[in-house]
Amino acid sequence: MSVNRKMGSREQQDIHAAARSGDLIAVQSILASNPLLVNSRDKHSRAPLHLAAWAGQAQVVSYLCKQKADVGAAAMDDMGAIHFAAQKGHLEVVRTLLMSGVSVKAANRKGLTSLHYAVQGSHLDLVKYLVKKGSSLSAKTKAGKSPLDLASNEDIRLFLVECEKSLKQGNANVTEKDEKVGAKPSPQDGAENSGEEDTSVEPNEEHDEGVKRKSVEDDSHEAPPEPKKTRVALNHLLSADDTEEDAE
């Protein structure tokens, strides 16, 4: 049993070292013999994925994700693989982790998100990518610090300021649009703003009287009614049998 423990411990050390150094072949070989080692932990509760992410080993990270590594697993202080990658500015690793289902808004025990770490490390390209992917600009750490508060790089600071301005402007535009949609014009306002004049015409009494007289004159000249037609007896056209039936 002690031998098995030693073998397991040695295999764990090997896969952790291979993941950290980017030795993809070694990682594949170890997991082929023992797939459960994909989520094995070291004394700091770090899995191979954490170490590969911290070291920027994009190929190993991609392979581990495909081998069902726990992409949301937390090491000490709730540090996830995305936090380790963001600390070092490894954009490709962060991209792979997000595609594998990691939340861009995930925070560790201190409340730091991947954006906090990217800003703190002055990784401008990663900061831009995380913002594009929906990382919160207003997220606060346990100490009450936003990503902008941690910005020491001037380019990053200006970028975050512009992002916040755009966000506020966008919210203002949405609010203004909602107010316009909610405000319905009254019928009176519609009449006042239509700019159309009343085109109705007052009735002309003389004209109406002339029309009435003409109508009477036209009626007086109508053709006389046709004379009533004389009824003609048709009994002579009936057959003898029909006559007998009438008599009955």
Automatic annotation (TrEMBL):
Keyword ATP-binding: no
Keyword Repeat: yes
Residue spans of the ANK repeats: 44-76, 77-109, 110-142
Biased composition range(s): Basic and acidic residues: 209-229
SUPFAM superfamilies: Ankyrin repeat
Annotated Pfam families: Ank_2 (PF12796)
Source organism superkingdom: Eukaryota
GO biological-process terms attached to the record: protein K6-linked ubiquitination
Biased composition (Acidic residues): 194-208
Molecular function per GO: ubiquitin-protein transferase activity
Keywords: ANK repeat, Repeat
Region listing for Disordered, in residue ranges: 171-248
Matching PANTHER family: ANKYRIN REPEAT DOMAIN-CONTAINING PROTEIN 39-RELATED, BRCA1-ASSOCIATED RING DOMAIN PROTEIN 1
Protein name stated in the entry: Ankyrin repeat family protein
